[in-house]
Specification:
Elements lengths: L1 H4 L8 E3 L17 H8 L4 E7 L2 H5 L3 H12 L4 E3 L7 H8 L4 E2 L5 H9 L3 E5 L7 H4 L2 H4 L4 E4 L5 H6 L2 H10 L4 H15 L15 E4 L7 E6 L2 E5 L2 E2 L38 E6 L6 E6 L15 E7 L8 E6 L7 E4 L8 E5 L2 H14 L2 E5 L4 E5 L11 H17 L7 H6 L9 E4 L2 E4 L4 E2 L3
Parallel strand pairs: 1-2, 2-3, 4-5, 5-6, 11-14
Antiparallel strand pairs: 7-8, 8-9, 9-10, 11-12, 13-14, 13-16, 15-16, 15-17, 17-18, 19-20, 20-21
Length: 451
């Protein structure tokens, strides 16, 4: 990706992953070693250590975790944080380890505590996680410690805009223009030590021209003084010799058509079934206890909006992990995805097993992407590069995504972004309940819930 990025007149800033997999409670296709992270951090193109999601490892002084953080400091590179909902002594310990940012805050109180304790806060507004409204008041009090970010935007959202939209919303709310511009540009450039021009004499001419300082519609973009975007059209047309991506990097799903069996649904000591309660606009979930007296594994209950969810190990044949989820709202059909942070196993939610089989097996057949079935028709947006990316341009992918998103919502969902919400239901490091390919996971106590 770094080498491809060098072929075009644009500046990309990469970070080194801090943990692959994110936890030991899931199956990933690969793992990264401390030495490999060190090799990455030694490169000039790597500007920071990416989000330290293993916050229990930090809080309990795990030797490998602490060594990784110390390597980043050795190369004078900042460490991004990822500690949703952590407060009090946990925050102080986390910051004391040398972690300088967090983009996972979802309340003003949590973010203020972290700011006062010395962290910088990235206000995130993605397709599923929307924290702007809750956190933007902090820009008044901490203008030098606030940055804007997206962290997972679907292609249709990107067509509407990005950081410029946050600038517009903040200014229209009455916040100081220069505090807003600082959060969008200067603060991140300084914090991550980016070789980006800051409009000083002798700097690279890296800048955008907008229509006005209220709407922030981008008219032109310049990189090193070269015009690369003009009135809605990219001018990046010559990217040198285009070579196919190596087959190793293409998606490989090492399983065949699936059926559900083996793993039973987890029940607590009272016989209740813990249900993942999705929250629209947030990545955190709640735990809903379903009093279901069925002698066998129950099926979806659309009247209570409780649907079956599965996570399937895409790397090796293994039992299918099953649970139930609330607030997807489907009255029929199913959706499935190979975008399932961070190990990107196959995740699916549906009303009945046949719909789930259909949505999942279509993805296995094409090597990954997102799918939706309404019981009669199935749509698939194929993502042949690791099941996460496409060779096609963003505009065509956005158009296709808009159609499959409409179809998912036609099943009955009122979620703003059903596919993005689904992609985070297997991310174990964000509480309260999530599902990995190994089973239901308690993110509060960081343990699998096993029978």
């Amino acid at each position: 990706m770094i080498e491809n990025g060098k072929k075009v007149p644009f500046k990309f800033y990469f970070g080194a992953p801090s943990c692959v997999p994110a936890t030991n409670f899931e199956t990933a296709g690969e793992s990264i070693t401390t030495e490999e992270i060190k090799e990455l951090l030694s490169r000039d193109e790597i500007h920071y250590l990416s989000e330290m999601m293993n916050f229990p490892g930090v809080l309990y002084n795990d030797a490998d975790v602490m060594k990784i953080i110390s390597i980043a400091h050795q190369y004078n590179k900042p460490v991004d944080g990822h500690a949703p909902g952590r407060r009090g002594e946990d925050v102080k310990k986390y910051i004391a380890a040398g972690i300088s940012t967090d983009h996972e805050c979802f309340t003003e109180e949590e973010a203020r505590e972290k700011l006062i304790s010395g962290m910088k806060i990235l206000i995130r507004e993605g397709s599923a996680a929307k924290n702007f409204e809750a956190l933007i008041p902090l820009i008044k009090e901490f203008p030098e410690k606030i940055m804007f970010c997206s962290d997972d935007k679907h292609p249709d959202s990107l067509l509407e805009g990005h950081i410029n939209i946050l600038c517009s919303r903040a200014v229209k709310k009455g916040y100081d223009l220069f505090d807003v511009l600082r959060a969008a540009s200067y603060n991140p450039a300084q914090h991550y030590k980016l070789n980006t021009g800051l409009l000083k004499p002798g700097d690279d001419a890296d800048l955008i021209l907008v229509n006005n300082l209220s709407d922030f519609t981008v008219l032109q973009t310049y990189i090193n003084g070269q015009l690369v975007f003009d009135n809605g059209k990219t001018l990046i047309t010559s990217i040198g010799e285009i070579k196919p991506i190596n087959k190793f990097n293409r998606s490989e799903i090492s399983i065949e058509e699936i059926r559900f069996n083996e793993k039973e649904i987890y029940r607590d000591s009272e016989g209740n079934i813990p249900v993942i309660e999705a929250i629209d606009g947030q990545l955190i979930t709640k735990k809903f206890l379903w009093q279901n007296n069925s002698q066998h594994d129950p099926e979806s209950d659309i009247n209570e909006d409780i649907l079956k969810m599965v996570v399937i190990n895409r790397y090796n044949p293994a039992p299918v992990a099953k649970a139930f989820i609330k607030n997807f709202g489907f009255k029929k059909g199913a959706i499935a995805s190979t975008i399932a942070h961070d190990s990107h196993n196959i995740v699916a939610v549906g009303v009945d097993d046949e719909s789930l089989f259909n949505a999942i097996n279509k993805l296995i057949a094409c090597g990954g992407g997102i799918s939706c079935t309404n019981g009669e028709t199935t749509k698939v947006l194929e993502l042949p590069v690791a099941g996460l990316m496409s060779f096609r341009d963003g505009f065509s992918i956005a158009g296709e995504y808009i159609e499959i998103d409409k179809m998912a919502k036609s099943l009955g969902s009122s979620l703003q972004s059903p596919f993005m919400t689904l992609s985070f239901m297997a991310l174990l490091v964000i509480p309260e309940l999530k599902l990995s390919d190994k089973g239901l996971f308690d993110g509060q106590n960081f343990r699998l819930l096993l029978r």
